[in-house]
Amino acid sequence: MATYVMLATYTEQGLKGIKDTVKRTEAARELAKKAGVTMRESFWTLGAYDLVAVFEAPDDETMTAFSLSAARLGNIKTQTLRAFSSKDMGTILGKMV
């Protein structure tokens, strides 16, 4: 499974319903499960992003479909990053020519 880090900021709609943010995150966890994605961690953060979550998905296409599904609800704007473990990086570096 590939690892992904999702960075999210609240939209105006998301801020209007901010008191439901914990419930919405749990709903996102269930939506992810339906999409074949596992939410490993979720954090509310200070700074440029309001939320950071770590996911596992079988491939980029599955994660992208989930990200778009979550964003289309209108509460967040997302940026998704593919993340590599040290083991992954060892393999990648071993393929360098």
Fold and architecture overview:
This protein has a 4-stranded antiparallel beta sheet. Helices cover 42% and strands 32% of the residues. It is built from 4 helices and 4 strands; from the N terminus they run E-H-H-E-E-H-E-H. 19% of the residues are buried. With 97 residues, the protein is of the alpha+beta class. Helix 2 (21-35) packs antiparallel against helix 3 (60-71).
Unreliably modeled segments: none
- CATH superfamily caption: Dimeric alpha+beta barrel
Q: In CATH, what is the class? A: Alpha Beta
How many strands appear in the DSSP assignment? 4
Taking the alpha carbons of the first and last residues, their distance comes to 25 Å
CATH topology: Alpha-Beta Plaits
Please supply descriptive tags for the structure shown above.
single chain, 97 residues, alpha+beta, Alpha-Beta Plaits, 4-stranded antiparallel sheet, 4 helices
Give a concise summary.
The protein has about 100 residues and is of the alpha+beta class. It is about 40% helix and about 30% strand.
Question: Which helices and strands, and how do they pair?
Answer:
Blueprint: E1 2-10, H1 12-16, H2 21-35, E2 38-44, E3 51-57, H3 60-71, E4 76-83, H4 86-94
Helix pairs in contact: 2-3
